[in-house]
Amino acid sequence: DTEVTQTPKHLVMGMTNKKSLKCEQHMGHRAMYWYKQKAKKPPELMFVYSYEKLSINESVPSRFSPECPNSSLLNLHLHALQPEDSALYLCASSQVVGDSPLGANVLTFGAGSRLTVL
Amino acid sequence: AQSVAQPEDQVNVAEGNPLTVKCTYSVSGNPYLFWYVQYPNRGLQFLLKYITGDNLVKGSYGFEAEFNKSQTSFHLKKPSALVSDSALYFCAAGGATNKLIFGTGTLLAVQP
């Protein structure tokens, strides 16, 4: 299995709602990532988990809450979002190779969850 | 500070002609360089990478890239473009940190 699966593909939510985005991979990758992407812009890193521990938080607002329950799953909990948070949210995974930096590894991306905040 | 530049927002090429998408980088330490492609409403797909070794790297779908250390460039090339190559292309660089830095992206439009 060489895929990263993201659900849901589309999500519309109000500013007071609580929802979650889910990501799953079965490639044995021990690093998992959340990116936010606006139309025709590069992905912006939000969070990195390495061996199920949060290793990078790019100063993301607390209305986004990541969770890595096990080595195959990554969630992004959403609460009290703003319309400007509307974007494509991409999950990715990669191997962790010895002491090499994560930036040396190929990322496998999911197809994304398109979020619209009304 | 680490950075990746893609100087062209869009590249237009006729089908069958060679294509080049440009990328320059600035990273601390040895660079790890990547090209990813994104089709509409999809995630990014890995095309090729340079870690060390030969300066000419061959990747998926007939793409290749040339690493030039003196010019700090990593341009993507293909000898003969296909209409199906039309997509958004991102160059990315990793260095001594755990972060991958993406360029701003280049939209490749291949006309039939």
Write up what this structure looks like.
The complex is a heterodimer of chains A (118) and B (112). With 118 residues, chain A is an all-beta fold. Chain A has strands spanning 4-7, 10-13, 18-25, 31-37, 44-50, 53-57, 64-70, 73-79, 87-94, 108-109, 113-117. In chain A, the strands form two sheets. In chain A, strands 2, 4, 5, 6, 9, 10 and 11 form a seven-stranded mixed beta sheet that branches. Chain A has a four-stranded antiparallel beta sheet with strand order 1-3-8-7, with no helix packed on it. Chain A is globular and about 45 Å long. The model of chain A has no long low-confidence stretch (mean pLDDT 93). With 112 residues, chain B is mainly β. Helix content of chain B is 0%, strand content 53%. Chain B has strands spanning 3-5, 10-14, 19-21, 24-26, 32-38, 44-50, 56-58, 64-68, 73-78, 87-94, 100-102, 106-111. In chain B, strand 10 (87-94) and strand 11 form a beta hairpin. Chain B starts with a strand and ends with a strand. The interface between A and B is medium-sized, with 26 and 27 residues.
